[in-house]
Write a structure and sequence with these properties.
single chain; 319 residues; seven-stranded mixed beta sheet; 15 strands; elongated
């Protein structure tokens, strides 16, 4: 009589956290079915702790000014997993796109092309070399250039059968004279594929890499969603507020998938503003120090700088 209800409960709740009593019921159910090597509850907890020790526990304790205590999953660790996972990384858009009036993805937004310098993607990789905004470089034509911003666009002379966006840079051309470099105040747009020599190569000296450590640096736009959840005895929760996060570098088709929505925090005691401050502090800390992550696309370490793109919510929560 016990088997059928538990079986249905398990199949309908793949991500529901079970209480100890429920775990014991599942273990009893498995033993009743004659399953081999059924672990004990103690063994499950011991395995869980060992996994947390090996891969790290993303949950952090946060204390609000009011004294409320809640727990928050690290923003830095969440986005690092996105870049290490081929399912999510390979569909990401690293640079905003000039959609020519077309708007179907977050990176098509016109404001994405005019982000403040601290939020725009500061670097680009060309032929295994990394170029940064605000740094002098030399192009294949032997002319000099200082990029100010990187973005993508479809060029009219591209391959019509297999159109691919081209990474472009807007910046200032630089002329070399006997007196030194002269920067042209009028900005132009050029393809990053023309970049040939980095600033370090121009200087012909070993320079300290500083904050980035010589890594490719990418900005990560985040969508933050806060909502209130009413209490429900049958679903095992009391009334609370919850925070979710999505990586807006992914296309809309991926953002709609459940595994691309990251749980960040929830609390029946802390207010939405207290939760929002905890999320803001987590993002600010990650942006200040940079998030070192393994990039499965380039197969190397990169640095991520997250920022909040926008906060989503229903009308009562936005109010």
């Amino acid at each position: 009589m016990l088997v059928q209800p538990i079986h249905g409960h398990l199949c309908r709740s793949p991500r529901l956290r079970f209480s100890d009593a429920q775990k014991r019921a599942v273990i009893t159910w498995a033993k009743a079915l004659g399953a081999p090597n059924v672990p004990t509850l103690y063994g499950l907890k011991k395995c869980h702790n060992r996994i947390c020790d090996q891969v790290g526990n993303p949950t952090e304790k946060v204390k609000a000014n009011s004294g409320n205590i809640f727990y928050l999953n690290s923003i830095a660790k969440a986005i690092a997993k996105d870049y290490a996972n081929p399912l999510t990384r390979m569909c990401m858009q690293d640079y905003p796109e000039d959609g020519q009036g077309r708007m179907s993805q977050a990176h098509h937004g016109e404001k994405m092309l005019d982000l403040p310098e601290g939020l725009a993607v500061p670097s680009v990789r060309v032929d295994k070399k990394i170029y940064f905004t605000g740094e002098l470089l030399q192009q294949s034509s032997r002319s000099y250039f200082i990029p100010k911003r990187f973005f993508q666009a479809y060029l009219p002379d591209g391959d019509a059968a297999h159109p691919e966006p081209v990474i472009l840079a807007i910046g200032n051309p630089v002329a070399w004279t006997a007196s030194g470099f002269i920067v042209d105040p009028e900005q132009i747009i050029t393809e990053v594929s023309t970049f040939a020599r980095t600033f370090e190569e121009i200087e012909e000296s070993e320079l300290e890499c500083g904050f980035t450590g010589g890594r490719l640096v990418l900005s990560v736009p985040l969508i933050i969603f806060i909502d209130d959840v009413s209490g429900n005895v049958s679903k095992q929760w009391n009334k609370h507020h919850v925070v979710y996060m999505s990586n807006a570098a992914m296309p809309r088709q991926m953002l709609e998938k459940e595994f691309c929505v990251r749980f960040v925090s929830s609390s029946p005691h802390a207010s939405p503003l207290e939760l929002a401050k905890g999320v803001k502090d987590s993002i600010s800390t990650a942006a200040e120090h940079g998030v070192i992550a393994w990039d499965c696309k380039y197969e190397e370490e990169i640095m991520l700088v997250p920022y909040g793109l926008f906060k989503a919510g229903d009308n009562p929560m936005q109010a």
